[in-house]
Amino acid sequence: MNIEQINHISVIGSGAMGSQIAMVCALAGYEVTLQDINEESLAKAKESLTGHMERRIKKGRLTVDEVNRAFNRLSFENKLEEAVKETDYVIEAIVEKVDVKRELFQQLDELTPPHTILATNSSTIVSSQIADATKRPEKVCNMHFFNPALVMELVEVVQGPHTSEETANVTVELTNKINKRPILLKKEISGFVANRILGKLMNEAIYLLENEIATPEEIDLACTKALNHPIGPFALIDLTGLDVHYNVRMQRYEESGNEEDKPSETIIEKVERGELGRKAGKGFYTYS
Ligand code: NAI
Questions:
Q1: Pocket of ligand 1 contains residue 122 by CB under 6 Å
Q2: Dist. CA 40–CA 14, nearest whole Å
Q3: Distance 72 CA to ligand 1 centre (A)
Q4: Architecture of the domain spanning 3-185
Q5: What is the distance between the alpha carbons of residues 121 and 88, in angstroms, rounded to a whole number?
């Protein structure tokens, strides 16, 4: 398998990440199928991508023709079999639960052609926890995008002990082809690089909040105006989704057994109240 053999990419899960990853690939010239078990999520993805593309046209970043051609290359599909039967590369972006991902990878192994690479966009789960659900572990790896995928340039490619050099190299080349910047990790670690660093920052931000040292607004201001971060930690959690943050921390806690990895009380309470961030209209901030 080499990069020239990749013509068709299937993205599984049309939520916040999957929808934009699919668009990134279509804009780069690939034939893309975006699949989701939930029709409503697919419809929302289409609507949201249309809005994003219209704004880019208005700002002069893309032409109408470029957008039309990208949408012509992008199809939306409910049935998994249809979405992957002729695909060369799969990027999975479904819910952050290892059992659900394992079940999907087992199905993907049965439904995709033998040459197809199966990558996961998981934020924490290393692909060795999933690869043995397939009969092609050498073709399984992590390909981790950042939110919002249309904007953020970095992609972390993680080569597990089971992942072949070929799979890792093709994934790095694919990352370049879709106009992103790859880093290749040759050793697995839960959470990879960027989010591990971010996790430490988040812990401190929540510590300062829970000890009533500063408000979310003040902490965000400190990060943006003193540390020159483009966005503060609380605005970022709202953007990512508090539920996603919660699942990531639980996943890491289950792996490490370290109490420090658990989601904080503040996060647990907000998730229980349905204050999941931007998508819910309320998180640490309120959105209209
Ligand atoms: P989301 O909740 O917005 O979307 C998940 C989508 O997957 C939903 O539309 C759901 O209907 C669909 N789905 C669930 N099970 C499915 C299945 N078996 N087959 C097909 N579709 C299925 O989640 P989000 O935020 O897009 O996250 C997806 C993945 O991306 C997770 O693994 C997460 O860790 C990872 N990720 C998330 C980031 C974020 O900031 N939200 C950043 C980078 C990675």
A1: yes
A2: 10
A3: 24
A4: 3-Layer(aba) Sandwich (3.40)
A5: 16
Six-digit token string for 244? 């996603």
Distances (CA, A) of 288 to 47, 254, 280, 281: 18, 36, 10, 6
Predicted TM-score (pTM) of the model is 0.90
The CB of 220 under 6 Å from ligand 1? The reply is no
pLDDT in tens, 73-111: 999 999 999 999 999 999 999 999 999 999 999 999 999
* Tens of pLDDT, residues 144-189: 999 999 999 999 999 999 999 999 999 999 999 999 999 999 999 9
Decide whether any atom of ligand 1 lies within 6 Å of the 31 Cβ: no
**CATH 1.10.1040.10 boundaries in the chain:** 197-278
Sequence-separated (6 or more) residues with CB below 8 Å from residue 50: none
